[in-house]
Amino acid sequence: MYEEPITFDFDLMTGLCLQKPGMDRHLSSMKGIFYNEEAFESMLKEDPKLYTFYDMDVPFEDMDLAFGTSICQPGKVGQEYFMTKGHYHEVFGTAEVYYCLQGQGIMMMETPDGLWKTSELVPGRLVYVPGGWAHRTINTGAVPFITFYVFRGDAGHDYASIEKKSFRKMVIEQDNRPVVVDNPRWE
To answer: 18 lies in a domain?
Structure first.
């Protein structure tokens, strides 16, 4: 927890923060997330960076707010667009807000009991992800997809649930546009 107010400089066009290093996620950290394993394996040689997030010193107290930016790169693994790993929050009822700064993409959301929803994000559009919904950002455009996010400081991230089963739905390119389809690997 900060003892006094603090100011951060981050660029609304690039999502970069001057005070904090970004944390990169490369394809190699996403094993089991993408459906097309053959395309995944062939791309591992290059191990492209899929996304970077800038965490502005996440506080861990329930009255604090955690916030930062996420920058998802354009590209595909097979027909499936580059995306973030996705997560639930460890404090299960925690909501999160994402505001699109640049690019275009989809927020994929689902609940453990089978509800799912997608929201298209373009600059100036915000999505409120209620507590209890897993969520991931998917870049469906040709430029970096940049979002600003805010959530409860002690919420934590549960990536393991997504690593086990991924999401029920996936977004693929079909006829040069994004389409939501059932994930054949979801159990």
So the answer is: no
pLDDT band at 55 (very low <50, low <70, confident <90, very high): confident
The pTM of the full predicted model, rounded to 2 decimals, is 0.92
Question: Sign (positive/negative) of CA torsion 68, 166, 143, 74?
Answer: positive
- The domain that holds 144 is classified in CATH as 2.60.120.10
N residues, the chain: 187
In this prediction, residue 59 carries a pLDDT of 64
Number of domains in the chain: 1
Range of the structural domain that residue 118 is part of: 23-182
Per the prediction, the chain carries an average pLDDT of: 91
